[in-house]
## 1
Amino acid sequence: DTAVSQTPKYLVTQMGNDKSIKCEQNLGHDTMYWYKQDSKKFLKIMFSYNNKELIINETVPNRFSPKSPDKAHLNLHINSLELGDSAVYFCASSQGGDRVHEQYFGPGTRLTVT
Amino acid sequence: GQQVMQIPQYQHVQEGEDFTTYCNSSTTLSNIQWYKQRPGGHPVFLIQLVKSGEVKKQKRLTFQFGEAKKNSSLHITATQTTDVGTYFCAGPTGRRALTFGSGTRLQVQP
């Protein structure tokens, strides 16, 4: 049983296109996240959702729009893709509550924009 | 904003040698977490430290949280090729999210 799953695993597309990445967790967690990992391996938080509500929106271009249809899903839609969007995108989830619990990561989606 | 730095950025060791990575935060942390990411894989949670001066061991891995709760270290005794990967520390931002350190990439020569 996969705890946090993402689709697709690889995404190759051209500049200007719009694409979506889907994420699902079956751990019953309240909080889900999107991270971007660049070629130097830096992991940077993009968005955080708690019980379907956005709680963190870091300085991410508004071409990126997260959508959480329910607690178990957090999708990421990207409009007008640019070369600099090429990276690995990780979805993660954790328990809710006052403190930050350990996070469970999905396998990642490697996005290549040509 | 909060910054979490790790050193070294990269370390190459011979199998059997020890390895240590250091993590420093610009602010006091309520806790610190460590993750390991194998090449081509995703970050996997290793451990969380909460108390000042806390030391925890997992087999050959020893984790330490500083007295001032602003620094931490991970020490691996007698490295094996299975230890290869990037090790990240991470601290809470105060908005129920984590700031990840810059990571230390470990390469182990058989």
## 2
Amino acid sequence: AQKVTQAQTEISVVEKEDVTLDCVYETRDTTYYLFWYKQPPSGELVFLIRRNSFDEQNEISGRYSWNFQKSTSSFNFTITASQVVDSAVYFCALSEVGTGNQFYFGTGTSLTVIP
Amino acid sequence: GAVVSQHPSWVICKSGTSVKIECRSLDFQATTMFWYRQFPKQSLMLMATSNEGSKATYEQGVEKDKFLINHASLTLSTLTVTSAHPEDSSFYICSARWAAPPYEQYFGPGTRLTVT
């Protein structure tokens, strides 16, 4: 079974629109970490955020915000006022302490911001 | 943050030859490194876990004799693709794990392998 599900394969938005990327995870561990990475066309993964399972506070960093809800096993990512430079593939990932902190990546969401 | 490098960043080789990819943690020691493979428009798939001083652990379906992994020091792991074939063409990414909690993983920039 897929541990991390990103149901949105591709999303296109017009510049300055807000966009939310969904991430649903599955784990039996009580201690785990959730991540979001951006992968531009160059291929290098760019770390965006890490949350641990005990910290459900939402976080905002500039135009980025994250909504972590353990009750629905979701860790959604919102980009406000999107820009062309936000065009990339975004991966959500889960790391479980119980499996030696192995990373489980979602299938990724390809975001295209149209100018 | 910690830095992980990969060398080369891209390589083209002929079918049947072998190619070695290096993964280095530049400013920290990593007892564990991971190797991932990513085909176009797909996610990262874990190939193997590399532990310093011991044999690598391969994921199901990954041929250990084809993808040789050596983790001889706390800062270097190498992946050798032996007898490469065009289907081995892919983007290979390594990560190095911090040795203490929360065992943060840092990813390298990736190596694009093309087998002709």
